[in-house]
Amino acid sequence: MNGFLSTYGFLIVSMVMGALLGLSLYLPLMTGQLSLASPGFYALGGYIAAILSTQVFKVSDGLYPIGLVLLEMSIAGVVSGVLGVLVGIPALRLRGIYLAIATIAFVEVLRVLSLNLDITGGAVGIFGIPQPFLTPIEYLWIAIPLLLVTMVLLYRLERIRLGRAFTAIREDELAAGAMGIDPTHYKVLAFTLGAILAGVVGAVSAHFLNTWNARQGTFDASIVYLTSVLIGGTRTFVGPVLGGMVFTALPEVLRAIADTAGLPLWLAQFLRDGRLIIFGVLIVLGTIFFPQGLVTPDLFKRQKNRKSHS
Amino acid sequence: MNPPIPLLEIRELYVNYGGIQALQNINLTVNAGEVVTLIGANGAGKSTTLRAISRLINPRSGQIVYQGRDITRRPPHEVVRLGIAHSPEGRRVLARQTVLDNLELGAYTRSNSAEVKADLDRQFEIFPRLAERRLQLAGTLSGGEQQMLALARALMSRPKLLLLDEPSLGLAPAIVREIFSIIRDLRATGVTILLVEQNAKLALESGDRGYVLEAGRITLTGQAANLLNDDQVRKAYLG
Ligand SMILES: Nc1ncnc2c1ncn2[C@@H]1O[C@H](COP(=O)(O)OP(=O)(O)OP(=O)(O)O)[C@@H](O)[C@H]1O
Ligand SMILES: [Mg+2]
């Protein structure tokens, strides 16, 4: 068991983080906004934690206090939230593919900034981010509660007035407006909630990965999390959670397959480096054959109906 | 008799869609308790008039005054709060949600849940077909049932002014009669209605006054009974 955990600990924590990032994309999607801004806020949150822990708090001996990690997470959440409102208000005037492009541009702007600023360590990034735990797997102490809390909140959200407003806007913004729901207000809110979540996850990830640089939270990451949500499911939060886990693990699985003996060289090469191609093909096939993703609310409803009929 | 109190007054309203002038110099009044009918050919600007009132589009100029308040620049959700409900053209129900969800969303602006519950029961009384199908997804309802849902949903906001855009569109005669009898009942309970209809005869028969819209302008207005007997109207709209 210990051997397993030390081999796969890193992957398991990454999968939980992947689920959380999938949810951060899912939140704006609840109001019908295809936003790819999450990796930008994720990068931002990571830099906040990296800078605070290496330059402000500077705990020199022993393990880094978890309290400080939680503090960094809160600060990252607040800053991401404020930036989320500022970016969200103008960006959410755009729809569909235009919003997606604008948010990709936002992520790029942050990336270029982080490459060129001193405080973010330029191209090199920030090294030696202190560890609150001895082994990677222990990051689950933060990641799992964070995921559970987020899932419980989303479960509640999908059932209260606010969540209904979100869904109404996604289905028909004009009709929602005619029912007295203010679409702009809720779209900015959903976008901001997604931003906060991504920022908080970034703060944890910075510690988890030990270093933080401009390669975190790039367009590649957007594609991975977009795949998680689109294939996992866009109609219930369970979809992005499962999708985020599976698609975070997928490249590792592919790499493992590539390492098995006897594969033709080109195939092994493709499995190792063709990640984005594979994700792209999955998105295309998934949206054609499973327009709502694999996990749909009907899956649960059918169960419920069966129970109530008997 | 007291002079009628205007609930809604539209003054010199102009609406453009890009370069197209959809409405020109519209002056229209709806008094409290009235059913006012707006008739006109396809593309005359009837839906545009309703959209301007519920603020789903922005007029270029002119004024919309409701209960003495200028609402020309208010956002749509505020207008709903003030008591204007719009049942838009093409029965825009939320297809993936249940009948019940749609109705509850219709009461989105209201906070007194006991009253909302009572109104919900009332809608199910008025529309027994909806009561039987309360957990069915709205998108799987028949066209007539969707129209009833759109109407019931609009009523869930307890409107003082109800804007109805072609409630009879594409419905069988029996259902059309049912819808219009509901409209007459609503009128009897004091709801003010601005009604857009292709079925000019039924609409004018159920209404107090009417306006005729042609290519974005009001060309004729008067008591519904007079319009019904007007030669021009008979020729153009009553067949
Ligand atoms: N979103 C839009 N963009 C551009 N033009 C529009 C738009 N909506 C309506 N129009 C134009 O404005 C004019 C009035 O349209 P409107 O929908 O108000 O007509 P209507 O009287 O309701 O017709 P119908 O009886 O067919 O529903 C039409 O010429 C229509 O083509
Ligand atoms: Mg129309």
User: What average pLDDT do the residues of chain A reach?
Assistant: 87
Ends apart, CA distance between termini of chain B? 36 Å
Most strands sheet of chain B: 6 strands, mixed
Tell me, briefly, the overall form of chain A.
globular
How is the largest sheet of chain B built, in terms of strand order?
6-7-8-3-9-10
Rg over C-alpha atoms of chain A, rounded to the nearest angstrom: 20 Å
Summarize model confidence as the mean pLDDT of chain B: 90
Structural class of chain B: alpha/beta
Poorly predicted regions of chain B: none
In words, what does this structure look like?
The complex is a heterodimer of chains A (about 300) and B (about 240). With about 300 residues, chain A is mainly alpha-helical. Chain A is about 75% helix and about 0% strand. In chain A, helix 1 crosses helix 10 and helix 6 (about 160-170) packs across helix 8 (about 185-210). The longest helix of chain A is centred in the N-terminal third of the chain and has 28 residues, at about 1-30. Chain B has a domain at about 10-90 and about 160-240: 3-Layer(aba) Sandwich (Rossmann fold). Chain B contains ten helices and ten strands. Chain B has helices at about 45-55, 75-80, 100-105, 115-125, 130, 145-155, 175-190, 200-205, 225-230, 230-239; strands at about 5-15, 20-30, 35-40, 60-65, 70, 85, 160-165, 190-195, 210-215, 215-225. In chain B, the strands form two sheets. Chain B has a six-stranded mixed beta sheet, sandwiched between helices. A four-stranded antiparallel beta sheet of chain B has the order 2-1-4-5, with helices on one face. In chain B, helix 7 links the parallel strand 7 (about 160-165) and strand 8. In chain B, helix 3 runs parallel beside helix 6 (about 145-155). The model of chain B has no long low-confidence stretch (mean pLDDT about 90). The chains are: A mainly alpha (about 300), B alpha/beta (about 240). Magnesium ion binds near residues 46, 47, 89 and 165 of chain B.
